[in-house]
Every structure is written in structure tokens, then in C-alpha cells.
Amino acid sequence: MTDHNNSTVIGAAPKGAGDRASAARAVQEMFSAIAPRYDLLNHVLSFNIDRVWWRRAARTFAGILARRDARALDLCCGTGDMAFALRRLAGESGAAIVGADFAHPMLVRAVRKSNGSSLRWVEADALNLPFPDESFDLVTSAFGFRNLADYDGGLHEIVRVLRPGGELGILECSEPGGLIGKFYGVYFRRVLPAVGTAISGVKGPYEYLPASVGRFPAPTDMIARMRNAGFREATWTPYTFGTAGLYRGKK
User: Fold this and answer.
1) C-alpha angle 215-74-137 in degrees, rounded to nearest 5
2) Pairing status of strand 120-123 against strand 71-75
3) CA 150 to CA 140: how far, in whole Å?
4) Per-residue pLDDT tens digits for 37-96
5) Candidates 3.90.79.10, 3.90.1510.10, 3.40.50.150, 3.40.50.300; correct CATH number of 13-250?
């Protein structure tokens, strides 16, 4: 296994960020700024397919969520939609679900949407989680992992908090190939940033989005990084013609 401390750091690189700390600050500021319109834009820009992706990803882990003693963590949870999908699937099982994000305005909205549910929200950095080793049976992240300033560091931290045999699910955007990819590229790089900027009133984040997806490791590379971090049975399942996909692994 490669020593992560000696490897090249690959992660999010917002415009103007020169190192891991400045990249993390830039991401935090961007997502705090768009929090008021975040849910609306997610649904509009994905044509509401994001709701299908969350539900499908959650169903993948139905076996874990059915256990009464299960503990699940949703990283980079934003306003909580993936955590809510996990909660709905868990039903009355008693599984404990925690959502974590380091953008405070996002968590404020997640709390408002909770409506007194048993979900717990924690303001935390995904690269330095405030949880003991082997705390969770499941860790998920939906469209947030690619914003980490250090992808390998994030995977190693997830391995740390997962119990032996625990599972990881990372739902992320991707760029399909072929003719679909060409049309998607035009939408993703031109239409989406323009619409996102117009609705949110904030320019930077929706110009950053296509760049962040383009920078994210290809599925084969990401699977290799997962295995190097300590995951076995690492796989990638494409969703909706490859415009998104679920990375899955077991500690």
C-alpha cells in the first residue's frame, strides 16, 4: 500500500487557491454563498434527476440501514438530501444517521428541513472528522467528495471512521463519452454555469462546478485510489448515461 504522506496531493482546486488550506477555504466560502438557492438549483440544473440518484444510491445500502444498531455518516451533506434518503430507507429500523458539512449555512438549512426527525447534524471538516476510529457502518457522500482539497486524504479518513466490513458510497458527477458526452459538455460548461449564476446571483461556484468535475479522477483512477486507501470490492456504477455514478467499496 502506498504511503499517503509521500504521495502527490490531488484534490479540488478553485481559482486562486494555491494549497490545500486555501482550496478548502475557497470551497467553504463558495458553498456558504450559494446555500440560500442550493436546493432549487440542484433540482433545476439536474432536471430533478438528482432525487432519483439519491434514492437509488440509498437503496444500494438497504441491508446496512435495516439493522437496528447501524450507524451511518453522510459527508459533505449540504442541506441534507442524501441523509434524508438514507433516513427514509432506514424507516423504523433504529439506524442512527449523521450528516456532516463544514459550510454552516448549509447545515442551518438541513436542520430546518429535518422537521424533528432523528437525524443529527455536525459541522465538521471531512479531512479531519471529530469521530473516534471505527464509529460507522456506512459512510456516504453525494456530490461533495470532489470538493475535498485532498481526495486520498478523504478516503483515508473515511477508512479510519468505518468499522471493519463497513461500506462507502460516493455519488458523483461524471462526464459521459460519445455523442451524449458532446451534448452534455455543451450544457455542463456553458448553459449550467449561466443558469446557476443567474439564479444564485453568485458567479464563482457555477463556473467552478464543470472544472471540479473535469479535475476529478476518472472511474478507473478513483477505484485504484479507493483500493490503495484500504477498500476491497471497489466498483463504479454509472447512472443516467454516465452523467453521474456511484463508487462503492468495503473496508
Assistant:
1) 115
2) unpaired
3) 17
4) 888 878 877 888 999 999 999 999 999 999 999 999 999 999 999 999 999 999 989 899
5) 3.40.50.150
